[in-house]
Design a protein that fits this description.
Radius of gyration: 33 Å
Order of helices and strands: HHHHHHEEEEHHEEEEEEHHHE
Number of strands: 11
Number of helices: 11
Shape: elongated
Distance between the termini: 65 Å
Strand order of the largest sheet: 1-2-11-10-7-8
Largest sheet: 6 strands, antiparallel
Structural class: alpha+beta
């Protein structure tokens, strides 16, 4: 059972439905055979006349004893072999006790007798017992193999979920120069490939949003690698374009073909009583500027996604940011969400309308209100990430 084709395919969720959806054809064969042999004799059992002289209390009592003996055998084979000794002794005691109890009941009319016909072994009786034993053994082996694989998968996903929560925690902070930031990332699986980050460095506030291609643990691992590479580059560079160019080379050298990352890195700092905002975009959706009850696209899109070629060129672009503006960075999990009835995507224009309708709110409330609306009014199987920064 431990070798050959697996009984369980890749785990992608919890619960009964998710578990059975992951069974391989071989796993379905094992469990189906187990159920078949376990219940095949049911018609024979239902048709049998067993109890005599209306001794049902005694019959039920001795069935209870039989259940206890069965549990001892189960514990012996599954947990500790010492239980088998107890089970054998209990079997002998039950057999001898049952014989004596039957004699006593016949003489005195006591209810404590087993209440069954004299034990006369039959061929069909052996067949029933054999079928029950085979069915139980098949289900037991299935549970042992699949249960171990399923528990291992769940443990792996729990680790992945913990990694995602530590790498992409919700952000709610106000910097010393008056940038109010709120951000969150909602993964479509236990570990997502979206990244939101806010970093204070070089007398500036850096806002980052990134989206790794694909989903799940693999995308999450690349995302964590990307975050480390970017923070390392930030120690040596000030320009968003130079930082992303450095990260691009690291990604290209250390990830498989087909893996890429779209990202926007935005630097915000005070300048002559106003704000100086510079961003570099690497294939990511454009930043939105929420101002005066409207949400408009910022300039500076373009750029190749990171990790495609080491020779990619990235440029800094100024962003027209003013006091009172809210700047929104987001992943395509928001814009590609679909309306459940029409099936149409929300799109950038739909997200603009949503942000504009909540423009007067504080960053944390704007973030929560927008994501709550997304959850209630749209459908998506992608990670959803939103970063909002308001300039005081």
């Amino acid at each position: 059972m431990s070798s050959g084709k697996p009984l369980l395919t890749t785990t992608q969720g919890r619960g009964t439905s998710a578990f059975f959806k992951q069974l391989s054809p071989r796993g379905w064969l094992w469990i189906s055979l187990g159920v078949f042999f376990l219940f095949a004799p049911m018609w024979s059992i239902l048709s049998a006349s067993i109890v005599v002289d209306n001794q049902y209390p005694g019959y039920i009592t001795w069935c209870f004893f039989g259940g206890i003996v069965s549990v001892l055998y189960f514990l012996g084979f599954s947990r500790n072999r010492v239980y088998i000794v107890y089970a054998v002794l209990a079997t002998a005691a039950m057999g001898f006790g049952g014989f004596k109890a039957a004699e006593h009941a016949a003489e005195t009319g006591s209810w404590f007798g087993p209440g069954t016909n004299p034990p006369i072994p039959t061929l069909e009786g052996f067949g029933i017992v054999l079928s029950l034993v085979v069915g139980y053994e098949l289900l037991n082996r299935f549970t042992a193999v699949v249960g171990k694989d399923h528990v291992r998968s769940i443990a792996t996903l729990d680790v992945a979920r913990g990694m995602h929560e530590s790498l992409v925690p919700p952000i709610s902070v106000t910097t010393g120069d008056g940038v109010e930031i709120a951000a969150t990332s909602v993964s479509s699986e236990e570990m997502g490939g979206d990244l939101a980050d806010a970093i204070l460095a070089h007398d500036s506030t850096y806002l980052l949003i990134a989206d790794v291609s694909g989903h799940g643990v693999r995308a999450g691992v690349v995302m964590s690698f990307f975050k480390g590479a970017l923070r390392t580059a930030l120690d040596h560079e000030h320009s968003p374009a130079k930082i992303l160019a450095a990260v691009n080379r690291v990604l290209y050298d250390n990830t498989d073909d087909g893996i890429f990352v779209t990202a926007t890195l935005l630097r915000i700092r005070r300048s002559d009583g106003g704000w100086d905002a510079t961003q570099c975009n690497a294939g990511h959706p454009p930043t939105l500027i929420v101002r005066g009850g409207k949400a408009e696209r910022g300039n500076g899109g373009g750029g190749l996604p990171l990790g495609i070629t080491p020779a990619a060129n990235y440029e800094d672009h100024p962003l027209d940011a003013r006091s009172g503006d809210a700047l929104a960075l987001y992943s395509d999990g928001l814009t590609e969400a679909r309306q459940p009835e029409s099936g149409t995507m929300l799109g950038i224009d739909g997200l603009r309308r949503l942000l504009a309708a909540n423009a007067a709110l504080g960053t944390q409330e704007l973030l929560a209100r927008s994501l709550a609306w997304m959850d209630a009014e749209t459908l998506t199987d992608d990670d959803k990430t939103l970063v909002v920064a308001r300039l005081s």
